[in-house]
Amino acid sequence: MRVFIYSNMKTLIIYDSVFGNTEVIANAIFNGFENKEDTRICKPDGFTPDLLKDVDLLIVGSPTRGFRPTKPITDMFESIESDSLKGVMASAFDTRVKLETIKSGALRLIVKAGGYADKTIAKLLRKKGATIIVPSEGFFVTGNEGPLYDTEIERATQWAKDIVSKFQAEQS
Description:
This protein is α/β, with parallel strands linked by helices. The protein has one domain: 3-Layer(aba) Sandwich (Rossmann fold). Strand 3 (57-63), helix 2 and strand 4 form a beta-alpha-beta unit. The radius of gyration is 16 Å and the shape is globular. The protein has helices spanning 21-31, 71-78, 105-114, 117-127, 152-171, and strands at residues 11-15, 39-42, 57-63, 89-97, 131-132, 137-141. Helix 1 (21-31) packs across helix 5 (152-171). The longest helix has 20 residues, at 152-171. Strands 1, 2, 3, 4, 5 and 6 form a six-stranded parallel beta sheet that branches.
């Protein structure tokens, strides 16, 4: 497998976590970037809009709570000025339960209709002017509080590597 390294790619990963699962995924994504010097990771309470200065790639993640991202993530987006993400490549992720593991058929239908946090985050990124570089991704927990399924950490690291490859291809 060929790994692309874009040496000047400045990346910011912002995540919120309720039970720790989304934090584990965010760190696995961080570990997928070879150039750690140009990759930052923070929670919404550590975010200020000046962190976006010179950012080439922005990844935002949240657990799915009531079909949406957490309030700290949505509040963070409110602090970002309109169109301030123009020229920034972005993607979104969430943690969620697998639809097929929900025992109640009625609840499964509600979740299917309500959706997950990743789509809302991607919409907020686009609204602020970002270009979505790869489709958003959901990472699976075994229950409301987790833990993550065994393969999810490796999958998150690979997703980050795929983003780097896509970013490199876009720059060629």
